[in-house]
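User: Hi! Is it possible to get a structure for several chains at once, not just one? Here's what I have:
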Amino acid sequence: MKPINKISSVLTPLERKNVDTDQIISKEFLKRIERTGFGKYLFYHWRFHADGTPVEDFVLNDPRFNGSEILVAQENFGCGSSREHAPWAILDYGFRVVIAPSYADIFYNNCVKNGILPIRLKDEEVNELIDKGQQEEFKLEINLEDQTVSAQDGTRYEFDIDPYWKEMLLKGWDEIALTFQYDAYIAAYEERARRA
Amino acid sequence: MAKTIIEKIWEQHIVFEEQGKPDLLYIDLHLLHEVTSPQAFEGLRLNGRKVRRPDLCFATMDHNVPTRNRETITDPISRKQIKTLQDNCDEFGVPLAGINHPDQGIVHVIGPELGLTQPGKTIVCGDSHTSTHGAFGALAFGIGTSEVEHVLSTQTLWQSKPKTMEVRIDGKLGFGVSSKDVILAIISKFGIDMGTGHVMEYTGEAIRGLSMEERMTICNMSIEAGARAGLISPDGTTVEYLRGRRNVPEGEAFEKEAARWLALATDEGAQYDTSVTIHADEISPFVTWGTNPSMGSGIAERVPSAADYDKQSDKDALKQALAYMHLEEGTPLSSIDIQHVFIGSCTNARLGDLRAASEIIKGKRVHPSVTAIVVPGSETVKRAAEQEGLDQVFLEAGFEWRETGCSMCLAMNEDSVPAGERCASTSNRNFEGRQGAGSMTHLVSPVMAAAAAIEGHLTDVRNYMKEPVPSL
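Assistant: Yes, the chains can be modeled jointly so their relative placement is included. Here is the combined structure:
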């Protein structure tokens, strides 16, 4: 997993709440047996008409946001299916940071395990970022170490993150290798369970 | 101290705990299917790792499998995914109910059938509807593929302790009300993210009166309320369901287990972080009109209007949903024509569901403008239904009777709803494009689906039922 600390990029405003993982990556693209190559299918049915031509007013088709690494959306982002193909698609498309007021639990976990930083900000802060992002190419500075989101116009928000997930994102840990260090505890648990 | 079942199961499964860290939790049962496992097995191979406890794993193929012409999977990518699971199970020694196995079926239907699902277990699967198994008083939750790989390698997961929520349903369910209506009404009342960060326990008189199958329908859709898991404390109904099943002990050993299971039930006076209550009187046969499972109402109602909402984001969400669903504000729900009926999925494809739907359809005909299919939840359900002659009831009415699988719930196989057409579906999600790009889904119970099949539009199933005369 690629470590993440500072990201500086234009934000992409997605003014929608309850964005479900079926929209992030539709089921017809779940048949790949690899972790890569999902980016071109991100938000496929919002991005493209049935004939494959781009939906002009969808935000990902707006050239102002080309190369953006920060996606901003409204509450309960990533609800529904547990498919990790959703964060794989987000990452493969080029986003490293998602900002929203709240996330579905499984999606949040899946982000962290793939080196995507999911930031929770207040409703009104998110709405302000979406507003600014829609008006102009609005550049944000993300700093995970300091837990801040800031911009040149003086915008500065702080965010909370579980210290364990923060460390994992900063270091880019392989969680399984980490857990292997607890093998004696796991073996002891299994021994207790056998005797019970 | 009085404890909830959630706290009891949690504490029993802590392998390691330390301040400032999630707990390392032991996993008792790991269910796998073909869509969310290939990358996890590949990860094991790349790192030279093995499956720590193949004996605690169980795999099946359900998401991709065809529901007819089983022998020829025409889609080469589906075929590859199915073959990949077969190969992975062979290589790593994981038990598998493959495509032609008599136990094959939707993973959340076969776990309980085989007695693998038991009270007090921690159960995971790379599938959000793992919450289904909570009906038995198990702590069961969906995980992503990275976590699948983690459980395969270590049989554990790092998990922060969830908050607890009681969802109490007071009173007795009314005439014609199914457990599907109960969960749809709960999500509609309290919101699609009511359960975020929580494990929900369903309690109350209405829950106690439900069969295990009906309880599974409710727990299944806990994820649609945003909950990490949903469960029901075990009782006599739970114990009797499990008695005599494969993978549960027999004789005296069973009685000992049963006593242990019953002791897991939430203690009198235990405190939850949050509690909500709904009265059974508030719940009538339900139908969704929007693009997430919280967007639903009783069948006698109308599609809401923007004026019904205070928040701008809710008004916007309504507008987006109705644009997708091609519906106008204020339209009576019972006037909405449908072209497809799907009775199936991990929510509503068990024997009891098929029996209930067949009661409505018996001697009637599917409306000429409707294509209706029944997809039993497992081979076992299918065999049992055929033994009772349910297949004949459906076939005579004009339904198709298919092989088992997830099918039209998510349309990963060829069973899909064409763009611009509507489906009354017993599945769990009405997200945009869920049953096929441009398709429109109305979530309903099996009996409501059956009634819609007859009429060709959404309709109140109570018109097809005889109300029992109340005894004095």
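The first strand of chain A starts at residue 6 and ends at 14. The two ends of chain A are 39 Å apart (CA to CA).

User: Great, thank you!
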